[in-house]
Write a structure and sequence with these properties.
This protein is mainly α. The chain has two domains: 27-127, Endonuclease III, domain 1 (Orthogonal Bundle), CATH 1.10.340.30; 133-209, Orthogonal Bundle (Endonuclease Iii, domain 2), CATH 1.10.1670.10. It is 55% helix and 0% strand. The protein has helices spanning 2-15, 27-36, 42-55, 59-63, 67-73, 80-98, 106-109, 117-127, 137-145, 154-164, 170-183. The chain is elongated, with a radius of gyration of 18 Å.
């Protein structure tokens, strides 16, 4: 499909070698950071995690954490009560069932408290090198505007992208779509005037942004 080829070529030119923007040094840190990133920017999460990762180094550290204290430590990421509770419960499961190791299958990861398909796919693709498509709000928006999917359901969007992207490009391409949505195809003010995908974009509202840029 020529449209997909053009899309993948463009994304590779624009975002080649661009790594995930959450700070981490091991699978546990990325797991925690991804849980914190729900309804929060990566920038804000990266302001919180250095002190957090210095204090909590293992799943056991989180499993034994005082939930009220952890809540205050992650408060600025929003929804901090639910996130703190999920992190502690998740790490208790890791200690009790996985000997403190992060499982490397989707089926196991999604059974952990606070871990949904998006988080699981981030871990699988980034830490374990397994083909995985991450569908966040950016990927959802870009995929819909480009006509890659008609669905609003993240799981169905993941399936649609899996059908049209080569499996070996799943991880990279979905991350590049995310970056395109974050920096170019924004929700409120898409920078259509600078978008190399304008010609293959099916979004009906694109013309009103064609000459606006960021203004």
């Amino acid at each position: 499909m020529k449209k997909v080829q053009l899309l993948l070529q463009y994304l590779e030119r624009q975002f080649k070698d661009r790594a995930i923007e959450l700070g981490y040094s091991n699978p546990l840190e990325l797991l925690v950071a991804t849980i914190l990133s729900a309804q929060c920017t990566d920038e804000r999460v990266n302001q919180v995690t250095p002190a957090l990762f210095k204090k909590y180094k293992t799943p056991l550290d989180y499993a034994q954490a005082n939930v009220s204290t952890l809540e205050q430590e992650i408060r600025s990421t929003g929804f901090y009560r639910a996130k703190a509770r999920n992190i502690v419960r998740c790490c208790r499961r890791l200690v009790e069932e996985y000997h403190g190791q992060i499982p490397d299958t989707l089926e196991e990861l999604v059974t952990l408290p606070g871990v949904w398909r998006k988080t699981a796919n981030v871990i699988l693709g980034t830490c374990f090198g397994k083909p995985a498509i991450v569908v966040d709000t950016h990927v959802k928006r870009v995929s819909q505007r480009l006509g890659l999917t008609r669905s609003n359901d993240p799981d169905e969007i993941e399936q649609d992208l899996a059908r049209i992207f080569p499996k070996e490009r799943w991880t990279v391409a979905s991350h590049q779509l995310l970056l395109h949505g974050r920096y170019v195809c924004k929700a409120r003010r898409p920078n259509c005037s600078q978008c190399g995908l304008f010609g293959i974009c099916t979004w009906k509202e694109k013309t009103q942004f064609r000459f606006r840029g960021e203004n």
